[in-house]
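Figure 2 data, in text form.
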Amino acid sequence: MEEKRADLEKTSQPDEGDLELAIAEDSVFGVITEDGPNYRSLGWIGTSIIMMKIQIGLGVLSIPAAFHTLGMVPGVISLLCIAFATTWSSYIVGVFKLNHCEVYGIDDATSLMLGPIGREVLGAGFMLYLVFAAASGMLSISIGLNSVSTHSICTASFVAIGAGCILCLASIRTLDRISILAWIGIVTLLVAVFIVTIAVGIQDRPSDAPAGPWVSDYKIINYPSFTDGIAAVSQFVFAYAGAPFFFPVISEMRKPQDYPKALALCQSVVTVTYVIVGIVVYYFCGSYVASPALGSAGKLIKQISYGIALPGILVASTISTHLAGKYVFVRILRGSDHLVSNSTVHWMTWLGCVVTLVIIEYCIASGIPIFGSLVSLIGALLATLQCFQPMGGMWLYDNWRNRERDVKWVVMVFWSSFMIVGGTFLMIGGTYGAIVGIIDSFNSGGQSGVWSCADNSNSV
């Protein structure tokens, strides 16, 4: 373990005078030269911004509606519990990466623990998670464009426009350049969200409230059904489910040892944002809160907030598509000189991965056009599997044979086991709840149809 950690430190601390040539060899990318892309050039501030953008994306837009399902107090408590659990999971990702520097993705980590079968199962789950997350972003882009333009063209065309923009941006090869987009994305999305948060406090009623005197009907405690309640918790999981993405992000850091402070900054900003937005928007909107939340404050504010938020939503889907494409790309070319060169094979493989993924994401966004239910499904079926069980297994894998079995060791064994069991419960129950929600939404007739031209900005 110490040899691997020392090896990683050796390749992670470039000389100040020659950054591009300092990292000569990497355990994941192989020999890196100035003739190809430098995949080890990401600083810790850029890392934290990318992590924030991964987290503060579509998830924050569903939090006020989840508070309505659970009630204010249970909602906040559930959110903080998920925040604590996923922060621990994200921290373990950094520890495991330093202990096993050859790990690039969660599939590599699972391969160490469970062998080839486990690698393929978690690798497939990771890919599906990224693809579904990007697809939900495409759906949100179509909602935003419909809102801003007052449904000027067919919704299916808006989804296609989003897909084209994502294709262009996700084709950027390195995360240090993507981090520039992440800065733009995080600022625009936060500005849009806080515009809505302030607007609902200033206005006397949410946009969908009935005419006449109105007082917010928010609930301190609500009593949802099991399916509704666990679907709401799954939306919190989705909002915090960045842990599996952080493996490839760490792999492109100049100094992976700086990951913990990048994580601390990220999770602090994310949690404060989620709590403020969730409480304020739900308090003033009550049962008339919209999902996505940007539609809660009336038509004009809705158009303004979506106009500002569209770059942030676009960047969120861009990062998901980029990471998914990079995962496939590295698996195909790992160990080959083409991985870090500018050869024809390199470019054809990279662009082929991105194009294929964008097509799949477009089909999903058009096939499940229900934002809240899609987010719940992603959070339960895919995010939970990536953020809970594997990290419990990682701690056990690295520490089970520890000879010093003190109280701390016993507590961590129980906690890691709880993450595995609790994650499995959330995954099964949440998936059931999300599927029931999708079926009910289609049966009610209140949603736009599959590959529909209908306006989806007023039906979510």
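Caption note: Confidence is low (pLDDT under 50) at residues 1-24.
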